[in-house]
Design brief:
The protein is an alpha+beta fold and 198 residues long. The chain has one domain (11-175). Helix content is 24%, strand content 37%. It has 4 helices and 6 strands, in the order αββββααββα. It has helices at residues 11-21, 91-94, 99-113, 158-175; strands at 29-34, 43-53, 56-72, 77-88, 118-131, 141-153. A 6-stranded antiparallel sheet has the order 1-2-3-4-6-5. The chain is elongated, with a radius of gyration of 18 Å. The protein starts with 10 loop residues before the first helix and ends in a 23-residue tail after the last helix. This is DUF3000 family protein. It comes from Propionicimonas paludicola. Pfam families: DUF3000.
């Protein structure tokens, strides 16, 4: 039987994982580690977030960081960020023909605002409006916006990844209707307690 050798994570991947674990998040975000996909890349780490203000959940999101030390032609690099963000929105916003373009701009603007270098972005923005009938008619009209996106972060050290984490936090919060933090403002609250495996 041929011996099987497991790949060894690069020192840079270990650094970025430590950066995720030690990240100070915006106080509105409750962040925890979740199981990462095992078959997409040799190494990965994933987190989820809920946006809460006055104990009301406004939105949620997930971020997966994939790493292939050998590089990926599809990613054009060794790392790939994959994100999902969703929130309930006003019904009029959901039917605005420009909302999908605006939603996509939230991601690009967040990356630019936080000076997070990246290439090869792709994704979709979806809005859904639904009305309930019959026994659940009292639920009324409900609308949601959902953004799924991925991009290749240009990472040379853990600090580079922090810019992408800040961008992701801004994206999730803005999707939920909260403005991005002003430039130069650092969150005072540390990450909230969660299921951190590392």
């Amino acid at each position: 039987m041929a011996a099987r050798f497991e790949p060894t994570p690069s020192p840079l991947f270990q650094e970025v994982v430590n950066a995720i674990v030690g990240m100070s998040w915006r106080p509105e975000l409750s962040v925890e580690e979740i199981p990462a996909p095992a078959k997409i890349a040799p190494f990965s780490v994933a987190i989820s977030a809920e946006v809460e203000v006055a104990e009301e959940e406004l939105g949620s999101g997930r971020l997966v960081l994939l790493h292939d030390p050998a590089g990926s032609a599809a990613w054009e690099g060794e790392f790939r960020c994959v994100t999902y963000a969703r929130a309930e929105v006003d019904a009029e916003m959901a039917i605005d023909p420009l909302i999908t373009e605006v939603g996509w701009s939230w991601l690009l603007d967040a990356l630019e605002r936080n000076h997070a270098a990246f290439i090869a972005p792709s994704g979709t923005v979806t809005t859904v409006a639904s009305r309930s009938f019959g026994g659940i008619a009292t639920d009324g009209l409900r609308a949601e916006i959902e953004l799924r996106a991925s991009w290749t972060p240009l990472i040379e050290c853990a600090d580079d990844l922090v810019r992408h984490l800040e961008s992701w936090a801004d994206l999730v919060c803005q999707t939920a209707g909260l403005p991005p933090l002003p430039e130069g403002v650092v969150p005072i609250a540390s990450r909230r307690a969660g299921s951190w495996l590392r």
